[in-house]
Amino acid sequence: MVAVTSAVEVLFAGAGDAFGSGGRLQAAMCLSGAGARVLVDCGATALVGLKRGGVDPNDVYVVVVTHLHGDHYAGIPFLILDGQFRRRDRNLTVVGPAGTRARLRAAMDVLYPGMAEVERRFAVHVVELQPGVPAKIEGAIVTGHEVVHASGAPALGLQLGYGGRTIAYTGDTEWTAAIPAVADGAELLVAEAYTWNRRIRYHLDWETLSSHRAELRCGQLALTHMSDDMLTRISDLPADVIVAHDGMRISL
Fold this sequence. Notes:
Helix content: 10-25%
Strand order of the largest sheet: 6-5-4-3-2-1-14
CATH architecture: 4-Layer Sandwich
Shape: globular
Number of domains: 1
Oligomer: single chain
Number of helices: 7
Strand content: 25-35%
Structural class: alpha/beta
Low-confidence stretches: none
CATH superfamily: Ribonuclease Z/Hydroxyacylglutathione hydrolase-like
Mean pLDDT: 96
Largest sheet: 7 strands, mixed
CATH class: Alpha Beta
C-alpha cells in the first residue's frame, strides 16, 4: 500500500531557549497540512507565537511534549484556558513522557488554582508515551526515544509521521546514540544547538552535533534552542544548515 503524502508546513512558533536569548520565544513547532494541527512542544510563550503566525489555537488538536521543563510544556495551561474562553469544542490530546499527566495537572493548579476541575466544552486527554513504541494520535504517528536531559521525568527525542512525511526533533539532550534513531529517514531533523562548542551537560553544542552528522540519515537539518553564544556564530554555519527563528515556515 502506497502512503498518501500531503504538503506539510512546519511553523516555528518559538525557536528560543528558556531565557529568551535573542528575544526569541520558547520552544513550539506547529505542523499543518495533513488534517489535525499538531503542536510539538508548548513553551510558556506558545500562544503568542501561534497567534503571531496566524494559527488559531483552537485548531491545534494535539500537543506533543519532549520533556517536562517549563520552556517546553508550560504553555499548555494557557492553551487550555484560551480554548475555554473562546468556546473551543474540539478535544485536546496532550502526548508526552511518563509523568505528563501529573505534571500538567500540577502546572494548571499552580497557575490557575481550581483550573483542573473546571468543566469545559472540550476534554483534555493525556497520552504518556512508552519509549520506542509508536502511538497513533489524530492521524499522526508519534514515537519517542529516550534521550539525556534531566527534567524529573524521562526526556524524549521525537519522530513524527505526519501527512506521509517524517519530522524528527531531538528536544533538549546531550549527544546520545538515540539521536541517529530519532533522525533516521526524516525529511527534516530539528536539533538543539545550544552552544557553538562549549560542553554543557544535558545539552547539544554545534561542534558535537556536526562531528556526528554523517550518522544522521535525514534530509534537511534545522537548528533551534540556541543561546546567545550560539547566535553570535550562526554566520559560521554551513550554508545547507537551516537556522530556525520565530515565525519561520518550512514546507515539506
